[in-house]
Amino acid sequence: MSSAPEPLLAATQRQLLHRVASEQADARAPSLVAAVARDGQTVWSAGRGRAVGPARAPADDIGGGAAPGAGTADGGGRVTLGEAGRPGPDTQYRIGSITKTFTAVLVLRLRDEGRLSLADPLDRHVPGTAVGDSTIAQLLAHLGGITAETPPPWWERVAGSEHATLDEAVGPDPRRFRPGRRHHYSNVGFAVLGELVARLRGMSWAQALDRELLAPLGLTRTTGAPMAPHAQGYAVHPHADVLLPEPAHDAGVMAPAGQLWSTVTDLVRWMAVLGGHSDAVLSLDTLAEMREPAAVEADSGEWQLGAGLGLQLIRRPNGLGGPSGQRGLAGTSTVFVGHGGSMPGFVAAAWSRPGGTAAVALSNATSGVAVGELTLDLIDSVDALQPSLPTEWLPGPLVDGDTLDVTGVWYWGPAPYIVTLRGDGTLVLTPQGRYGRASRLRPGPAAGTWTGLDGYFAGETLVLGRDASGRLTNLELASFVFTRRPYAPADRIPGGVDPHGWQ
């Protein structure tokens, strides 16, 4: 983690509170709690409404029903919430499908350990299922072509014993599309991935989750069963200001798709991991891989929703702004990374702008509370009202002459490029004309090489070409040759150069 971020101004905090208060009132949410983070650390949080009454034992909640003291019923059966139970940053809510991000990290840890390949068909590790031809990468990105839900009954409102085995959850005919054809969100696919984790770890999914993620990160308020203080889930009547308590069953084999309870405090810490502010449980390279678009929903033209590896993506055009009136460059867009979640009685959202501000929002209502839009609006408001200060420029460490020789103007054929060296040791290749392929490169495994990080040259290797005396003459990147003068020296240009030269 970096040093503490700049505190938010009072006017900024008031704007955020107004947005949360308006959502809670307009959506008639029993309670709503939200937080904003920068550099992986909370800079603001607030709660509205009533979430819980006096605490009670977690075991009483599994199976549903209202918590004693969470409210009282009048003669007509109406639930009312008392003064107790105002939500705070450590009040637990059920986070539904945000659970999938934890399952995905467990799978990627196995990949990084060499226990599996993302290209492996599921059958290689969990043989005998009806979806064994889908690859692990396809399951993570909802490209497996698998049914969205279990066979009846609706798994979110019944005890996990209704689908006691993985085969019962998958069902006899789960295939909806050929694997890889299109993005089709699947809760069942993440139940399968949870079983994959359990088999390769030799323990339950829940045990692996606690040992590998929750305990090392100190996420003590993220649990499989609710722990006081926690919110009671409600359905809000569509035409009257009355509440119906919702059940909160253990999801059984479907737990890896939506079991967890958490708080905005814990989810800010978790979003710091997913956003690349910490490599405590997964390498920064793998976290970046998770955030890359692997699938998009493009049925209606330009994509707005997509998926990485276990993460959801939202693409919003710049220049439209939100409640804050933020404006960006016309024709550009921002891809937000995170996940939404819902279970009966709860909705949740956790989103971040790449490399920047993040927001979390939790509510104990089955539907109607736009927590996803709320989090994006909070991010937009903070970044518009109080933009982060740029990191101070400082000179980088000393570099040798050979590295400095790589910088400056190079030509790919007649097209000019600039190579610059950053203080962190990365090179930036930037076209100087109207078109070209920009890329960042970091030092490679062999001396005098760099590896592309993004753009067209991602994963490709840049090597230095020298003449017999050792003088640097050209750069070679994915067979593209860059020289100090257009098409010179001729002996380094593939195919040679017309002997008459420039005319």
From TrEMBL:
Biased composition regions of type Gly residues, renumbered to the chain: 62-79
Signal sequence range: none
Domain Beta-lactamase-related: 23-376
SUPFAM superfamilies named among the record's database cross-references: beta-lactamase/transpeptidase-like (SSF56601)
UniProt name for this protein: Beta-lactamase family protein
Compositional bias ranges of the Low complexity kind: 48-61
Domain DUF7586: 400-484
